[in-house]
Amino acid sequence: MDSPESIQQHLAAIVEGSEDAIVTKDLNSIILSWNRGAENLFGYTAKEAIGQPITIIFPDDRMDEEVDFIARLRRGERIANYETIRQRKDGSPVPVSLTVSPVRDADGQVVGASKIARDITLQHQLAEQQRLLLSEMRHRVGNAFAVAASLIAVAARQADSAEQLSNEMRSRLHAIASLNSMTVNDPSGEQPDGMPLSYLVSTILKPFSEGVSVQTSLPDIQVRPAAITPLTLVLFELATNSVKYGGLSQSGHGVEISAEIEDERFRLAWKEPGVTEAGSGKDENKGFGTSLCRLTVSTSLGGSFSREFTPEGLIATLDLDLAMVAQIP
Question: 4-119 adopts what CATH topology?
Answer without folding.
Answer: Beta-Lactamase (3.30.450)
